[in-house]
Amino acid sequence: MDFNDTPEENDFRLEVREWLKNNAPKEKKAGGYDSIDVQESALARARDWQAKKAEAGYAAITWPKEYGGLGGSSIQSVIYSQEESKYNVPTGFFDIGLGMCIPTMMAWATKEQNERYVEPALYGKEIWCQLFSEPSAGSDVAGVRTKAEKDGDDWIINGQKVWTSGAHFCDFGIIVVRTDPTVPKHKGLSFFFLDMKSPGIEIKPIRQISGGSNFNEVFFTDVRVPDSQRLGEVGEGWKVALTTLMNERLAVGDASGVDFKEIFELAKENDFYGEPAVKNSAVREKLADWYCEYSGLKNTKMRRISALSKGDTPGPEASITKIVSANKLQDIANFGMDILDQAGINSEGNLKYHGSLLGAPLIRIAGGTDEILRNIIAEQVLGMPQDVRLDKDVPFNEIPTGDKSN
Ligand SMILES: Cc1cc2nc3c(=O)[nH]c(=O)nc-3n(C[C@H](O)[C@H](O)[C@H](O)COP(=O)(O)OP(=O)(O)OC[C@H]3O[C@@H](n4cnc5c(N)ncnc54)[C@H](O)[C@@H]3O)c2cc1C
Fold first, then answer.
1. Do residues 314 and 307 lie in contact, with contact meaning Cβ atoms separated by under 8 Å?
2. pTM higher than 0.85 for the full model?
3. Which residues touch 111 (CB under 8 Å, ≥6 apart)?
4. Residue 346: its pLDDT value, please?
5. 207 in Cβ contact with 34 (< 8 Å)
6. For 109-124, what is the mean pLDDT?
7. How far does residue 163's CA lie from ligand 1's centre (Å)?
8. Which of 88, 211, 243, 305 could form a disulfide with 30 if both were Cys (CB 3.0 to 4.6 A apart)?
């Protein structure tokens, strides 16, 4: 492993640094998309920043130049992110669209469709969402029940999606639906993209424990989608969905928030049973565990970056980073709140523990739950036997559900 930049990587880093110095927003509060109240102004700022990045070619470093990318390497993308993270730039609004939806379009849509949709997404003018999860199909996306039936040149969609991030401000979405319930679940799916303002779509924001409202329930009642907006063959939507899911797995990173350095400082500054917390042996044991996880993650990340620098593609072992970092975040935040007592929710300086405590469970679920990622590690990294999948070869409409209407 060599953690140093190659001369070419160093040149690229200096170029990016210079560009960020001259262009990154100077305001202190960039705003994420977490709180519903700041959302509109944060979105406007995010659109401005996205357009600037796209103009300079930094919005999609690995994309081909014909689609407005830089035609660069994965390691250049990592370098850009490392440098950008030093600035308080608005984030979050375009991640799903540019990280999952548009790469799926680039792989499956026609040239004309890509000419129409890719650039506005890259410049932040149009935002996309991912309509996969349903009340009874999350980890097992192939179990979706939202259905599409052919009617002339259109398909009519009926059903419900849930946890759709950003649906309330998105312009377009990608959706996986059931078009044939009489064949096994993976074989009766089809994949479409659609206009989120289509008649018959109703979006209901879900209020989260943090007070924010990032995701939604989305209801479809007789929503018409032209057959020309189908990606892949009828009944082969699972293949298209895998393109999206592969991109999602690559995008899954580590959880950010309070970490070892913060909790170490907090333990030095605050008392626990009448002495500085850092002197308590139980606290010291926890601190030692978190330090091991912190440095293990740092080295795992460096190993990944080093592999990217040599042109290798990161594999399913990236799942380890999400499991360890999300659980560490929840543990540290929980413990920080214990030490701080009421000051954890009352004092502005300590709200980071509060925010991390409420945000960590989301990270442990989104993009693959802890248990699903453990299955991936067991099966794909350690080569252990596959999870038992009893319903794999059964026609979808014969899988027992307990629901008499199906
Ligand atoms: C912040 C956030 C944003 C999201 N954004 C989107 C979005 O934009 N679009 C979208 O389509 N979805 C989105 N989701 C949904 C997300 O993909 C699902 O929540 C996730 O896949 C889990 O599905 P589920 O909630 O239905 O839980 P389930 O799949 O019902 O799982 C329930 C529990 O059972 C466990 N479990 C399930 N299967 C197995 C198994 N085979 N082995 C062991 N344990 C198992 C799970 O780990 C979990 O603990 C988002 C979720 C979150 C938290």
1. yes
2. yes
3. none
4. 72
5. no
6. 97
7. 9
8. 88
Is the predicted pLDDT of residue 37 greater than 50, yes or no? no
- Contact predicate 54/123, CB 8 Å: yes
Predicted pLDDT of residue 131: 98
Rounded-to-10 torsion of CA 247, 250, 254, 256: -40
Between CA 97 and CA 125 the distance in angstroms is: 11
State how far the Cα of 248 lies from the Cα of 238, in Å rounded to an integer.
Answer: 15
Whether the per-residue pLDDT at 403 is higher than 70: the answer is no
Q: For ligand 1, atom 24, name the residue with the nearest CA.
A: 138
Tell me, what amino acid is at 228?
A: S
Q: Extract the tokens encoding 220.
A: 């479809």
Report the distance separating Cα 223 and Cα 201, nearest Å.
7
Minimum mean pLDDT range among 198-202, 209-213, 266-270: 209-213
The H or E element that residue 225 is part of is strand 215-226
Q: What distance in Å separates the CA atoms of residue 121 and residue 153, rounded to the nearest whole number?
A: 27
From residue 253, alpha-carbon distances to 58, 149, 217, 308, 312 in Å are: 19, 37, 25, 14, 17
Query: Residue 226 pairs with which residues in a beta bridge?
Result: 154
Q: What's the Cα-to-Cα distance from 245 to each of 36, 81, 101, 166, 266, rounded to whole Å? A: 27, 22, 10, 18, 39
Task: Decide whether any atom of ligand 1 lies within 6 Å of the 251 Cβ.
Answer: no
Which atom of ligand 1 lies closest to the CA of 133?
A: 11
Strand 128-131 and strand 172-178: the pairing is: parallel
Q: Which atom of ligand 1 is nearest to the CA of 361?
A: 53
Q: Is 50 in the pocket of ligand 1 (CB under 6 A)?
A: no
Residue type for 370, please? D
* Token digits of residue 301: 């990340």
Q: State whether the beta carbon of 372 lies less than 6 angstroms from ligand 1.
A: yes
Asked whether 244 lines ligand 1 (CB < 6 A), one says no
Atom number of ligand 1 nearest to Cα 130: 9
Q: How far apart are CA 396 and CA 73, in angstroms?
A: 42
Which atom of ligand 1 is closest in space to residue 140's alpha carbon?
A: 29
Ligand 1: nearest atom to the Cα of 96: 8
Token readout for 27 is: 């305001």
- Does the Cβ of 164 fall within 6 Å of ligand 1? yes
Mean pLDDT of the chain: 90
Amino acid letter, 102: I
